[in-house]
From TrEMBL:
<dbReference type="Pfam" id="PF08327">
    <property type="entry name" value="AHSA1"/>
</dbReference>
<feature type="domain" description="Activator of Hsp90 ATPase homologue 1/2-like C-terminal">
    <location>
        <begin position="20"/>
        <end position="165"/>
    </location>
</feature>
<dbReference type="InterPro" id="IPR013538">
    <property type="entry name" value="ASHA1/2-like_C"/>
</dbReference>
<protein>
    <submittedName>
        <fullName>Transcriptional regulator</fullName>
    </submittedName>
</protein>
<comment type="similarity">
    <text>Belongs to the AHA1 family.</text>
</comment>
<dbReference type="InterPro" id="IPR023393">
    <property type="entry name" value="START-like_dom_sf"/>
</dbReference>
């Protein structure tokens, strides 16, 4: 099976990470810009946490500089979407429309679900489910399959960096 065939057949990606943190801390790290600016691709997330509310991610100066170093100009908003469901600190469902590249933006809107479950001993599971129907290039990017081409490690990398930040106070870059 070719990469193109694989990209068109994988329409849902599921990632789970276990984090020694409270559900509230994990929720804040996902939804508050002072947290989202620190890990992963360092975007500034802005959520209106009501059904129908807007969701936007703006690039930080660091994000812009790293993209520019690779020859990419970023728009003022790199991801936009709508909050479909918000049940703090347990579940967040949003649409997701990446605007960083015209080809990816043309693929349209997908859906991401974050589920936080409290487990014994101060540990929580964080499960991210990304429904990627009709977005084969985005599926490759968020799946980390274009990491060797400079696209980053996708959801697995972002969640790993989030876990590291919450458990140690530092990210991979610090």
């Amino acid at each position: 099976m070719t990469v193109a065939q694989l990209a068109t057949t994988v329409t849902t990606q599921v990632y789970r990470v276990y984090i020694k943190a409270t559900p509230e801390r994990i929720w804040d790290a996902i939804t508050k810009p002072e947290w989202t600016a620190r890990y992963g691709y360092t975007g500034l997330a802005d959520y209106d946490l009501r059904p129908g509310g807007a969701y936007k991610v703006r690039p930080t100066d660091q994000f812009r500089a790293e993209a520019a170093a690779k020859g990419h100009e970023l728009p003022d908003v790199v991801i936009e979407g709508e909050v479909l469901e918000a049940d703090p600190p347990r579940k967040l469902v949003t649409t997701f429309h990446m605007l960083m590249d015209p080809q990816i933006a043309a693929e349209g809107t997908t859906v991401i679900t974050h589920e936080i479950k409290e487990l014994p001993d101060g540990v929580c599971s964080l499960t991210l489910t990304h429904e990627l129907e009709g977005a084969p290039t985005l599926a490759l990017i968020v799946g980390g399959r274009l990491e060797d081409q400079g696209a980053g490690g996708g959801h697995a990398w972002v969640l790993s960096d989030l876990k590291t930040l919450l458990e140690t106070g530092k990210t991979f870059a610090e």
